[in-house]
Specification:
The complex is a heterodimer of chains A (141) and B (109). Chain A is 60% helix and 0% strand. Chain A is built from seven helices and no strands. The longest helix of chain B is centred in the middle third of the chain and has 4 residues. Chain B is globular, with a radius of gyration of 15 Å. Chain B starts with 24 loop residues before the first strand and ends with a strand. Classes of the chains: A mainly alpha (141), B mainly beta (109).
C-alpha cells in the first residue's frame, strides 16, 4: 500500500465484499436454516437462479486464457490432478466472492496455483516472490 | 507431498546469519496477497526500526502449507503510530509487530 488514502480505499472495498446478502455479516452465532443452506450451496450450481441482465458477447479467448487452459490440461496429463479436482477447487473452494468476481479462466489459474501449493510442488513463498519479480519487470517497461 | 516438520525451539538471540541489527531502519515489502500471509496490510511500504531479534523459524506462508523451509530470522519492528495512521493524535506513540526477514528490506538513512 503506497499511501494511507489508498489503504483506506482498499479497506472500504474489502469491507464491501459481502456477497449475496448485502448486509454486513461477521461472526454470527446463529445462522438460520435457509441461510445456512445458502452458505453451504456449491457456487457453481447456478441453474434457475435469477441474474442481473448480461449482454451476450462473441468474445475470442485471449492468450492468457489459452495458456491457462493448456497449463491445467498438462497438469492433468502428468497426473498432478484430474478435471474433477480442478472443478472442485475452481468452482467450490474459492468461494462465492471470487467465483463471481474474477474471470472464468482466472478461476482456473487460481485453482491450479492453489493445488500446486497444497501438494507442495511449489512453495507459497516461491510463488509470491516470482509474482512480485514478474510484476516489477513489467512495471519497469 | 506434505513433509513432516520438526518444530524448532524459539531462541532468544539472533543468529549470525541475521541481516539486520537492533536500530536498523527497514521497510516492509508489499508482496502480492495470495492464499495466506501474516504480514498486515497496514504496515506494508512503511518504514520502521528493528527493536529486537526474536528467533529463527519457518516462514508462515510455507509453514501454513506444512512445508519445510529454511529457518529465517524474525524481528520485532517498531513503527511510529503517526506513520501508520496520519490522523493519530500522539507523536511519541509506537506500535510493534513481528516480521520475518523475508518481508523486510533495508532503508538507507
Amino acid at each position: 500500500m503506497s499511501t494511507r488514502s489508498e489503504l483506506r480505499q482498499q479497506q472500504e472495498l474489502i469491507g464491501s465484499l459481502q456477497p449475496a446478502l448485502h448486509v454486513p455479516q461477521n461472526w454470527n452465532y446463529e445462522v438460520d436454516g435457509p441461510l445456512y443452506k445458502a452458505y453451504m450451496h456449491p457456487p457453481h450450481d447456478v441453474g434457475g437462479q435469477f441474474d442481473v441482465p448480461v449482454q451476450y458477447e462473441e468474445k475470442e479467448e485471449e492468450q492468457w486464457e489459452l495458456n491457462t487452459y493448456v497449463t491445467c490440461e498438462v497438469l492433468g496429463w502428468r497426473g498432478i490432478w484430474n478435471s474433477e479436482e480442478r472443478r472442485r477447487r475452481a468452482d467450490n473452494d474459492l468461494g462465492y466472492t471470487l467465483y463471481l468476481g474474477i474471470p472464468y479462466y482466472g478461476r482456473w489459474i487460481w485453482a491450479a496455483a492453489r493445488m500446486l501449493v497444497d501438494k507442495n510442488h511449489v512453495s507459497l513463498t516461491e510463488l509470491l516472490e516470482k509474482i512480485a519479480e514478474v510484476k516489477s519487470r513489467y512495471a519497469a517497461k | 507431498m506434505p513433509q513432516s516438520k520438526t518444530p524448532e525451539k524459539p531462541q532468544n538471540t539472533g543468529s549470525t546469519r541475521a541481516r539486520f541489527k537492533v536500530g536498523d531502519r527497514v521497510r516492509v515489502k508489499d508482496m502480492p496477497n495470495l492464499f495466506y500471509t501474516r504480514t498486515q496490510m497496514y504496515v506494508r511500504g512503511i518504514v520502521g526500526t528493528i527493536a529486537a531479534l526474536t528467533y529463527e523459524d519457518i516462514l508462515p506462508e510455507d509453514e501454513a502449507f506444512n512445508r519445510d523451509g529454511r529457518l529465517e530470522q524474525y524481528y520485532i519492528v517498531r513503527f511510529r503510530q503517526k506513520d501508520l495512521w496520519p490522523e493519530y493524535p500522539f507523536d511519541n506513540d509506537t506500535l510493534q509487530t513481528e516480521s520475518p526477514e523475508r518481508w523486510l528490506e533495508p532503508v538507507s538513512n
